[in-house]
Amino acid sequence: MKLIADFIEANLDALVRRFAEAARGLESTQGLKPSEVISTLPEYLHAVAAICRDGATPEWLETRTRLEEAHINLRLRVGATQEDATDEYTLLGRLIPQLWEDLQPQRKPTAVGIQCLFQQLEEAMDHVVVLFSGYSLEDRQREKRFLRQMDALAPRWLEPRADPQGPLKPLVELIVQALEATGAELFLVDAGGRGLVPVAHTEYLSPAPGRRVDAQGPSFLGRVARSEEPLVLAQARGLEDATREGLHAPGWSTLLGLRLWPHGDLMGVLCVGFAEARPVPPQTKRFLETLVEYLSGILDRALLMGRLREANARLEASETRYRLASQAAADTVWDWNLLTQEVSWSGETRKLLGFAPDEMGPLADWWVSRIHPEDRERVARGIHAAIQGTQARWQDEYRFLNRQGGVMRVLDSGVILRDAQGRGVRMVGAMQDVTSRWEAENGHERLLREARTARVQADTELSQLHALLRQAPVALAIFRGPAHVVVLANDRVCQLWGRASEQVLGRSVLEALPEVEGQGIRELLDGVLTTGTPYVGHELHVRLARAQGGALEDAYFNLIYQPLRQAEVGIEGILAVASDVTEAVRARQRVEGLAATLRISEERQRLALDAADMGSWDIEPATGRATWDARFRSMLGLPAEGEVTLDEAMQFVFEEDRRQVERAMEEASRPEGSGEYASEFRVRLPLEGQPVRWISGRGHFHFGPDGRPVRFVGTGLDVTERKLAEEAARQRAEFEQYLVGIVSHDLRNPLSAITLGTSSLLRRDDLNERATKAVLRIQSAAERAVRMIRDLLDFTQARLGGGLPVHCQDLELGALVHQVVEEVRMTVPERVLQTSLPAKVIRGCWDPDRVTQVLTNLLGNALKYSPEDSPVAVRLREAPGSVLLEIHNAGAPIAPDLLPRIFQPMQRGVPGMDAATRSVGLGLFIVRTIVQAHGGTIDVTSTPEKGTTFTVRLPHADAKQAPGA
């Protein structure tokens, strides 16, 4: 350290002169005499040189402290701020190294000497903080100790709808201990952003129900919510109720409150109470500000992680429902990008159409070419009319040519997604094979015609049935809104219901027909309105009083419920079309010939179940006798032959699941229920060593005239593979959450310890040059790991949280670019950074922290991938409607095959580079995400002749006030 001491003393006059010239631009020296600007500087530099040469002896330390106090007191007298005084020591720290730049290497100070010099300047700045604020080193150590304890108590996540008292009460109690207070209470804003709700109190386990405080009201808590500084209520006892509104602290005499204000938005209020009346010193207020700011960060992170967990769960459930629905329906699901015309097809394509997904053309033209020529023009015209119009859905039935050239009939439905201008940008739909249904319907009509021709003379009842069907009245009505109020009803509706027009119009359906309550009509209407799916019911059975107050009669209707949307027809409700087929049903029930048609229909159903790999059952609930097809017997492990009752079959179901299956059947078989049965259960096959099998059962109970169940039919599907996939997906999701926890908390703490440890080691005098370099390498590696963690957290937020949040505010972009470049230049003094800024001030609404992150990442890339003797240029200029920020460097260009994916995660510009400078490959992905969040774009050009240039284009919107400012 002798070199640094000799250097300072040899250049003492030059240092004082340079400081006096450079300090003229500082606010702290305005109006001072030249002698006052340098004040005690020569003596101070002499003392610093002596400490570096002889060590920190008590005499020299006392001299240095006396000179620092004299200098700082002079600045206090002329009205300088704490930042002004520390800026002077920072300036001195820059001037001294500038003097030895031209010295020969052997004459330059060593790393140990430089560390000694900078340690003296850092301690001087600490002295400034103590004298200006009264906040001593012991106070800061105590503050750090409590902040570390808050880190240890911080919850990893807070569920949005869970009670936060348990995880938050220890944090509030720790703040009370830190401030030596009597107690405290934490309030958070409600969903509306105006009310304050208590969530944690040091004196009780759970907040009293119903407490809520208006954040804009006149109470003490309301004033705290609107104040940027801590507020004190010196005498809290005996105040009016309006002032104490929301507080539950009768034993507190003095109140100290501060709002939680992360990201410029009100999060809540912390109120600390003291039992005795007392003044609150500035140190306590500052300590509270530090603790509350840290608490805000903890709560913000925990709530964000809670929302991420909830979003992940919803996403996983949505994806599972989509996959199961696709598999259960045996549909081909397609996704059509209307901007690029690219179409992707699901894995069910091979089963339905005979094509593997990779065999199908990537564009929509391939699908059009496979439509039957007679249907092609009609289908293409209809789907394009739907896309170019305002419709939300499209559906058509047409013929399609499969892989073998055969004709199949498909029902194709799609949902159109539109942008803010109403333009169709994406369409997602499903194609279903309805060939069997179409053939069955046409075959059914043919059979009816044959039966009618054969029995026209002999079966008068069948003739009467057809006559009744031809003459059946059709009723039409419109029900408005969730209450299903009748706003339109023709005469046939009144005839069907046995009501006068004035007893129907303006009333809800259940007011006009109170006797149908509990018969499933309300559920049908609610389902159609909420899901938007039409309901078609053939021979819907209800018990209806044809005259008001009369006896209930069995009635049967053919019924269609069609949802109406406000955006499409100007009304939110349901269109109902019905015809009374009661007499037709009764007549048909007496016609024996229709039994043959029923058997044919059942046989076709059996064939359809075989094609879908499903089993079926038919049970008489009164006797327990059952018919099981061969496939369901195999699924359940039943004997292949012989009669098996329902009770005997239930013995093959796992005991843990048996009660659940029985309960589902009991619910479905109740006369007032819908009759629909659904349950998933496990079965154990009779042979040893066979795995457990999962069965998904769906069925329906049919009821007799007396309301008792007379028949229970249903189907079963083996869903073992789906259950195994769900379990694997659940374990994967839990692992991802655990990994995020490690990155956000468990890794950051040890890295903080490493950083603090290296900083402490670098202040020691007994480190030789080799040890100092080793510690500096450790410190650099830890800082790089912290940057990697930050990138990983930003990546997780971008992928799971739907993008990175930006908080725009009025910003002078040129000043920000200049500041960031200067900060980077201090970290790499050996490199040349060139800036080109416009003379005109560029203002706009951008997020300063995120723009700084973009520029820092791009500058870091440019320095990393360019020769050390080449400059890196930063240019800022205006363009029509936007501003352009360009970062250019020379050197080897980015490989052409890498350019299209340079902004994707885990991509690096130069493969195989030095491990010491390698990152996780997320920097450019995060840069693009931040730019896109501002509504901008980023491009890159890279050639051997012109080098590499990244161009960021940000919209040049008018400056606006940031939220909460």
Automatic annotation (TrEMBL):
InterPro entries: GAF (IPR003018), GAF-like_dom_sf (IPR029016), HATPase_C_sf (IPR036890), HATPase_dom (IPR003594), His_kinase_dom (IPR005467), HisK_dim/P_dom (IPR003661), HisK_dim/P_sf (IPR036097), PAC (IPR001610). Residues 394-446, 538-593, 677-731 form the PAC domain. Keywords: Kinase, Phosphoprotein, Transferase. It catalyses: ATP + protein L-histidine = ADP + protein N-phospho-L-histidine. Residues 318-390, 461-532 form the PAS domain. CDD domains: HATPase, HisKA, PAS. GO terms for molecular function: phosphorelay sensor kinase activity. Residues 742-958 form the Histidine kinase domain. PROSITE patterns: HIS_KIN, PAC, PAS. This is histidine kinase.
